[in-house]
Design goal:
Length: 219
């Protein structure tokens, strides 16, 4: 009967009424990460710019407050870590290790160390908004765009893809110099064992320590 169809349509939510707002999405992401003590995930890092393209992959461990360990496995082993005070970058077999105070880091990976316990997307990004022009890699994910306040001198904007649980699946960073760095995350593990020793580094014998503010991988 036509009136039955009309009545049913009244109870079908429209896309506008079911779409989450930026505030709701940000709160969902904040809530997910702020309740964790540790997190482990696989990552793929893609860099494009300055006449080159590079793809690397490995695993990332985060532990609050402010600790992180990036274990690069492909195409060659590398280590980037911070215990919250000091950050290190080292390629096994190299004769040098790079060291920087964590508070002075100028590195695209460094803000992620604050993801656990201190996530406040709406405070960390200017002009945070939905990005309807960017197709999510996974159906049902939402995509946001904003400019990180702490790295406004280096980054034009960041595209962030999150799933319905609030897990960040992808970060695409558009740098002011025209280059792009993308991180894709998968296989997330909540609260895995992560002893403090995982976030400390002692240079092997004979390795020279170079103090710097930029621990970015040498190109």
């Amino acid at each position: 009967m036509p009136w039955v169809i009309a009545l049913a349509l009244l109870f079908v939510p429209s896309p506008a009424s079911t779409a989450a707002t930026v505030h709701e999405i940000a709160r969902r992401v904040d809530h997910y990460y702020n309740r964790l003590e540790t997190l482990k995930t696989n990552f793929t890092e893609k860099y494009s710019g300055n006449g080159m393209d590079r793809i690397e992959s490995g695993s990332l461990i985060l532990k609050k407050p402010g600790r992180m360990r990036w274990n690069y496995e492909q195409p060659r082993p590398k280590l980037f870590l911070s215990d919250g005070r000091t950050a290190w970058f080292y390629v096994p077999g190299d004769r040098q290790a790079r060291k920087a105070p964590a508070r002075d880091l100028q590195d695209l990976r460094s803000p992620l160390r604050y993801l656990l316990g201190k996530s406040r997307l709406e405070k960390e990004f200017d002009s945070l908004s939905l990005a309807p022009d960017v197709k999510p890699e996974e159906p049902g994910d939402v995509v946001l765009r904003g400019r990180p306040k702490a790295m406004a001198d280096q980054v034009e904007d960041v595209v962030l893809e999150a799933n319905q649980a609030g897990q960040i699946r992808r970060l695409v960073i558009h740098n002011i110099d025209g280059s792009t760095t993308e991180f894709d995350f998968s296989g997330l593990q909540e609260n895995p064992p992560a002893p403090d020793s995982d976030f400390r580094f002692t240079p092997p014998p004979g390795v020279e320590v170079i103090e710097t503010r930029n621990l970015a991988s040498p190109q």
